[in-house]
Amino acid sequence: MSVLAYLVSVWLFVVGIYGVVTSRHLVHLVICLAVAQSSTYVLLLGIGYRTGGQAPIFGDIPTSTPVVDPVVQSLTLTDVVVSATVSALLLALAVQAHRRFGSVDPDELNALRG
Amino acid sequence: MALAGLAVVVPLLAAAVLAGTTSLRARRVADLVALAAATAVTGLCVALVVRTSDHSIVSWMGGWHPRNGIALGIGLVADPLSAGLAAFASFLTVVALSIAWHQIDTAGHLFHALVLSFLAGMVGFCLAGDLFTAFVFFELMSVSAYALAGFRVEERAPIEGSLSFAITNSVGSLLLLIGIALIYGRTGALNLAQIGVALTHRPPDALVAVTFALIACGFFVKAAIVPFHFWMADAYAVAPTSISLLFAGAMSELGLYAIARIYWSAFAGPLGPHIDTLRDILLILGVATALVGGVMCGGQRHLKRLLAFATVAHMGILLCGVALLTHDALAGVAVFVVGDGLVKASLFVAVGALEHRRGSVDEVALYGRGRDLRALGTVFAVAGLALAALPPFGPFLGRAMIEDAATTEGRGWVAPLLLIASGLVGGAVLRVVRTVFLGRGPVPPEHPACRDADGGDELDRDPGTPVATIVAGALLLMAGLAWGLVPGLVDAATSAAARFTDHLGYVNLVLHDAPQAAAAAPGHPPTGTAFLYGAASSLLAILVAAARTVPEGPLRPLHSGRIGDYVAYAMVGAAAVAVVFATTLV
C-alpha cells in the first residue's frame, strides 16, 4: 500500500478537528466530527490492504488466494456504526439546542461557564 | 465459566426488554426490572471475584480458543481486580437506580434501559481481553453516558453539558481508535496478550511509543486528566444526581483501569527498559491533575460542579498510583477507588437530597438554609473529612498506600503534593458545611460568568425528602469509612495487584491456558509518615474551610465552556504527550 492512504487519513483528521475547534454551527460541527472519524476508516482499511488481494469472502475462491485483512474491515464497520450513533445523538441535541436556546452556534449556548 | 458472559448479557437483555416492551412502561415495573438486573449483575461479578481468588479465569466466547499462541476469538479475562471493578460499578448502578426511584426527572423506562446498557458497557470493558472488544464496550458505555448526561433534555444546561461531553469524548475515542489501528498494523493482533508477545520480539521504536501515547490519551479524556478534563464539570453538573454518582464513582476510574490493564498486558515488555522515564511523565500528569482539581474545587459554588472537580483531583491521585507501575501502588489504587467512590457517592446522594428539599444546588442560594437539616450536614462534614484523607478511613488507606509506594520508588515529592490536593478538596466540602449548614462566614465570590443552571426550573420539586435517600447516603458513607478498617484488605489487594501486574503470567494464561501462579505478595500497611500526612491534609482541609477568601488563580478563565476550546486543549495535550513519549521512551 502506498503512503497515500496514510496521508489522506492524517489530512481528514486534521481538517475534521480544525472544523470542530472553529465551528460556529452545531450541524457543521457534527459533520466535522464525522469527517475526523472517517480518517480512522481510511487508516484501518489502509493498514489491512494487500496489493492484489481480493475481498475476504471464501465462498467461491480457494483458501490460498491472497485477500485483504478482514479484521480491519469488521473494525471499520463497527466504527461506522459507532459514528452513526454518536452523530444521531449529537444531531438530536442540536435540534433540542435550537429549540431551547434559539441558536445553533455553540458559542451562544451559555448555560454553563467555569 | 459462563459467569463473565452472563454479567454482560443480563443487563443488555434487560435493557432491550425495557426499551422495546410497551407494557413495561409503568414506572415501578421499570424500576423493579432494572434493579433486579443490576442486582443480578452485582451478584455475578461478586461470584467472579470469589471464583478468581486463587486463579484468573479466561472465557472464550463461542469456544474460539487460541491455537499456537494466536487468539482470534473474543476472550473475557476475569481476575480479582477486573471482576472487582465490574462488581463495584454494578453495585453503584444498584445505588443509582435506588436513588432514581424517588427522582421525578428520571421517569420513563428509557432511563432504565440507558442505565443498563451503560452498565453492560462498563462490565464488558472491565473484562475485555482484546482491544476491539474493549473499544466496542467503551463506546457502548460512552454513548449511553452522553444520553444519560443530557437526559433532562427539556432544560438548557443539560443540552449544553451533554454536547460538550459527547464531542470531547468522541475526539478521545478517535485517538484511542487510531492507537488501536496502529498497534494492529504493527503486531497483527488485537488480543492484549498476543500484542504483548509480538512487541517483546522487536525493540521498541517511535511507533510503539506514539501508539501507547494515543491509547493513553484516549483514556485520559475519559479519566479527566489535565488537560483533557474540561468537559467533566459540565457533564456532572447537568446529569441527574444518580447518574453523576455513577460517573464519578465508576466511569472515570475505568479510563485509568484501562491504561493499567493495557500497559501490564501489552506494553510492559517493550517499555520496560524506560520504566523510570514513563513513571516520571505519568506522575507529573497525575500531580498536575490532582492540584488543578483541588484548586478549581475551591472556587465552585455549584455543588455538583464542586464534586466534579473533586473527582478530577482524585483522578490525579489515582493516576499517580497507576503511574508508579508497581503492584504496591496499584493495590493502593484499587483500595482508593472503592473507598473514595463510596464516600463520593454519599456526597452526591446528599446533594441530591439537598436539591430535593431546598430546590437548589447553588451554595450562595442555599446559604444558611440547611441549618435544620442536621443529618445531611453531618454526612457532608464526615465525608469532607474522609475525602481529606482523615486516618484510618477508606480514602486515607488508599492514598497512604499510593504515597508509601511513591516514597519507596524514590519519589518523595509526590506525597506532600497529594496532601495539598486532598486538603483543598476536603476543605471545599467542609466550606459547604460552614456556609449551607451553619450559615457562617463568607461565600465564594460571585463569578460574573457563573450562572445557576436554568434557575427557576429546579424550584418546583417535591419538598418532602424521602428518608430512604438520606439513609442510603449515610450507609454509603459508613461503608466508605469502614472500608479502611477491613482486616486483611491491604494483603488481599496487594496479592490481586501482583497478579494483575504479572505480564508473563497473563500472557501464558490467555494464550496457552497455563494457570497463573498465585502471586503471594505481602501487603504494606500505611507507615507512620502516611498517618502524619493524613492528619496534615485533614488539618489543611479545616483551615481551607475556615478561610475568608478562596484563591483560584488563572485557571478559571481556561474553563470557558466553549467546546472548541476543550477539543483544542485536548489536541495540544495529546500532541505533547505523543512527542514526549516518542522522544523519551525509545
Walkthrough of the structure:
- The complex is a heterodimer of chains A (114) and B (586).
- With 114 residues, chain A is an all-alpha fold.
- Chain A has three helices and no strands.
- Chain A has one domain: Helix Hairpins, CATH 1.10.287.
- In chain A, helix 1 runs antiparallel to helix 2 and helix 2 packs antiparallel against helix 3.
- In chain A, 34% of the residues are buried.
- The model of chain A has no long low-confidence stretch (mean pLDDT 88).
- In chain B, helix 9 runs antiparallel to helix 10.
- Chain B is mostly helical.
- Chain B has one domain.
- Chain B is built from 21 helices and two strands.
- The chains are: A mainly alpha (114), B mainly alpha (586).
Structural features:
heterodimer; A: 114 residues; mainly alpha; Helix Hairpins; 65% helix; elongated; B: 586 residues; two-stranded antiparallel ribbon; 21 helices; 70% helix
Short account of what is shown:
Chain A has 3 helices and no strands.
What's the SSE blueprint?
The complex is a heterodimer of chains A (114) and B (586).
Chain A: H1 4-22, H2 26-48, H3 70-101
Helix pairs in contact in A: 1-2, 2-3
Chain B: H1 3-20, H2 27-51, E1 57-60, E2 75-78, H3 80-100, H4 109-127, H5 131-149, H6 156-187, H7 192-200, H8 206-223, H9 231-238, H10 241-271, H11 275-298, H12 303-323, H13 327-358, H14 374-387, H15 394-408, H16 414-437, H17 467-483, H18 489-500, H19 503-512, H20 528-546, H21 563-584
Antiparallel strand pairs in B: 1-2
